[in-house]
Amino acid sequence: GAGVSQSPSNKVTEKGKDVELRCDPISGHTALYWYRQRLGQGLEFLIYFQGNSAPDKSGLPSDRFSAERTGESVSTLTIQRTQQEDSAVYLCASSLESFGDTQYFGPGTRLTVL
Amino acid sequence: AQSVTQLGSHVSVSEGALVLLRCNYSSSVPPYLFWYVQYPNQGLQLLLKYTSAATLVKGINGFEAEFKKSETSFHLTKPSAHMSDAAEYFCAVTNDYKLSFGAGTTVTVRA
């Protein structure tokens, strides 16, 4: 079946602009996650959705970052007033359940802020 | 809270040689442990997962990992490296839903 998809695959923006990153999880997966991967670093957790609710937003680095999920499906990560330090690969993952379940990752969106 | 340490950011092996990637973790409760592989410009692909059913876990592409509670380790091995194993490998741990990742180990394979 189809895996996790993300769009766009690449995004170049100017400092101060807003960007939206999209994630389509595997159908039927109730849990959805966003991670950020900076150059040469491991992944850092941003936010977790269970259904359409986000019980854990603890990894969002600032109030410029927000995310939503609708229809227990698509999720959008929005970064307002982008800064150069926001440049990274943003990875989305989904899992059937949450506790200890295998997370399946999308290919990521590479964000470059000039 | 959990944390993961991967020893060695780069590993170079000859084709046909043993691949050994080290991972140590800290966790206050028995964890779930994962190894993921990332090929250039791709997302993460699951290699294998430890869930306490067996300490030796076999994964895809000939990889396996052994959970050693006394050493808090979950090292990844493959007996014979192939050129297609060149990639970045991440160890991850969780005892709930939030994965904590190591910094990754890049594997290069010499012909």
Outline of this structure?
The complex is a heterodimer of chains A (114) and B (111). Chain A is mainly β and 114 residues long.
Write structural notes for this entry.
The complex is a heterodimer of chains A (114) and B (111). The termini of chain A are far apart. Chain A has strands at 5-7, 10-13, 19-24, 31-37, 43-50, 53-56, 65-69, 75-79, 88-95, 104-105, 109-113. Chain A is an all-beta fold and 114 residues long. In chain A, strands 2, 4, 5, 6, 9, 10 and 11 form a 7-stranded mixed beta sheet that branches. Chain A is globular and about 35 Å long. Helices cover 0% and strands 50% of the residues of chain A. The model of chain A has no long low-confidence stretch (mean pLDDT 94). In chain A, strand 4 (31-37) and strand 5 form a beta hairpin. Chain A contains no helices and 11 strands. Chain B is an all-beta fold. Chain B is built from no helices and 11 strands. In chain B, the strands form 2 sheets. In chain B, strands 2, 4, 5, 9, 10 and 11 form a 6-stranded mixed beta sheet that branches. In chain B, strands 1-3-8-7-6 form a 5-stranded antiparallel beta sheet, with no helix packed on it. The N and C termini of chain B lie far apart (41 Å). The chains are: A mainly beta (114), B mainly beta (111). Chain A binds chain B through residues 4, 31, 33, 35, 40-45, 48, 56, 59, 91, 93, 95, 98-108, and chain B through 4, 32, 34, 36, 41-46, 49, 51, 90, 92, 94-104.
